[in-house]
Sequence to fold (375 residues):
Amino acid sequence: MNHAILLFGGLGAAAVASHLVSIVAVIARLKRRSGGGQPVAAPAGVSILRPVCGIENFIEDTLRTTFALDHPCYEIVFCVADPADPVIPLVNRLIGEHPRVDAKLLIGNARTSVNPKLNNLVKGWHASRYDWVLMADSNVLMPTDQLQRMQAAWRDDTGLVCSPPVGTAPQNIWAELECAFLNTYEARWQCFADFVGLGFAQGKAMFWRRDLLDCAGGIEALAEEVAEDAAATKIIRARGLRVRLVPAPFAQPLGERRARDVWRRQLRWARLRRDTFKWFFVPEILTGVLPPLLFTALAATLGGWPVGVTVTLLAVGWYGAEALLASVAGWPFSLRMALLCFARDLLLPCLWVAAWTGDEFEWRGNAMTVAVGSD
Fold:
């Protein structure tokens, strides 16, 4: 019995340790607010590609930030696939309100891949003129120093700098649940992966040196995977370079969300991770609070300790550490969100199983599959 107590207690302790180590590492990154070492020289000019599609929550706020960047030389290329898209008048109005900013709107769809966003971006890549290119999703805010912060993370061994999204401005319980997924879980683990040298691309914001992608076949090479960020990760790693993340991720204001949309988004990402990086996806079943709670409860039962008190203390410490991370980072967190973090952890095994039991997902109303080449 003593061996069983040691086994289960050790497994629980290992899970808690990995949780705390990842949080401490990310807090250290946030406090440092720089990539470390010597960045390369600042680019003379940057082309910003922003694919837009439909009227999203806070769309005017997020797009407007593109015109207020503190950088001496940049262009904005908005890309729209559908000439009847309702977002077009908004984009044209913003361009008209900022005549001093070099900005244009391109309309059309390349249809070179199964990825609608990539098809929308192709024309922007070929029409942009600077050697440095930032692909930034329309629903993410751009702080005035975003280009400097992404450039500061670039090193001689870097091929791409990215930022995961951080959920802000949640206006209902489902948006708070999405924050629980995005912030102290997904953004934390993505930043920790970068900390240990395993950084991978995140499509919300990708900062390229144009020649690196052109040498791989241009933007069309991102069609090798269903998700352009997965393809980008493989392209950069194949060249012996690293994908780096900014120390402090950029914000995505959420507004209101529906439960089914939160589930579909998380399922889409889970199936894409399972398809493109299987061996990194397999251990995700061990993340979240459930495995250490189970191991600790078993050890407490065998050892004759008060199970309820033991698992309660573990849960309080677990989510207290997440609350500390959110506080340091300035991310939304509350007592209700702590409960939603527990709800998130209850959903993680369901997502993991669902990721293995199907290939289909939905993106902006498009029925898609992880199998490249399918419609």
In short: The chain has 13 helices and eleven strands. The radius of gyration is 21 Å.
